[in-house]
Amino acid sequence: MPRPSFVGRTSFPRPPTPYERYMADEGVPIHRGLVGVADARELPRGPWRRLNARGAFVELEGLGNIQGLWLLEVAPGSETVPERHLFEEVYIVLAGRGQTEVWSDDGASDVVEWGPWSVFTVPLNAWHRLAAAAGEPAIILVGSNAPIALGLYGSREFIFGCEYPFSDRFQPNGEFYRVTQLREHPMNGRALNSDTFIRDVTTVEVPIDGQRGEGHRHFELEMDGNVYQGFVAEYSPGRYSMAHAHESGAILTCVQGAGYTLSWPKSAGVRPWESGHGDLVRKTVYRAGGFVSAAPGGAEWFHAHFPVSAKPFRVVTMSGGYTRRVTGQPGDIVSENQDMKLGGDSIAYEDEDPMIRSLFREELAKQHVEFAMPASVYEAETSAPVSGESLAERE
Questions:
Q1: DSSP assignments along 40-75, one per residue
Q2: Considering 78, 142, 155, 374, which has the largest number of Cβ atoms within 10 A of its Cβ?
């Protein structure tokens, strides 16, 4: 039978997005096709003349033009060119010391000093510049929703030249950089940190949470009410997360310890080795200063995180917040971290592939770290989901 006629082409080269054109025009290296990086400080960087700095963009698998990620290197004793823009940024200091100055045309201003493992943001569309102290360069990892903003408006002149002050974010006669107390998240009841500055994310309090596994610690991170959000999580030595699935976009940056992430497609099954698909499991190793795309294959992939160091394994995750896909209607019940047997996307320990535990034991033995998972977590009666008790009750 003859094929029906049609107009146009059925295959063609994908054009670059506005964010991809922006990256190319900035003239710094672009690292593509990566699931993770063992240590971002080892990535090649080049002159970033517009900012009077050095840098590189990183396009991890699964980011899907939703999150931007780049390295910024400021030479000792120098400072970046001031800029403002209509996208949010979260900074993680990987090395060096310095300060960030922020100000607006309507008179608001503030300054903060930072060092290794500081985490901070800047006010939306406020002027800002970073200055490195003498002695060593400052190397900073920056996560952002720049791809969303550039894709939405297209015009860089508008993105970098808009004068709207967003005074609800940054007010004259008020401090922007502040440290507050952890509180309970009004939506999910987990711990919430809304600081605009964390001096040392390796020492800040991270309360017990348990939703990702035995001994798991966690707080939500919503700096300055940013739309661009994330969280900080920690696993104690010898313990690991339950495998789980969610949409792509989350970037896990290790700030303490070392570990690896396993990921595999759901088509390989809950137990990929037992089903004969162990060859589809991908392993990404990283340490303090490294990062990984938590879900490179999207919601149709499982992944799990494994600490292998004698120190607690702590990560800062930039997840995108409300710039990610939202499903359902307002008021619908959202299920997070629930057991698959209850309709969620988490694999309970007793249901996981035995090879996961075996490989973890092998990796721990190489580092002379003891396996610390209690036997009880592998028994079916312990797999009930985290209940709705308050943060205070859990502690």
A1: GGGS--EEEGGGTEEEEEEEETT-TTT-EEEEEEE-
A2: 142
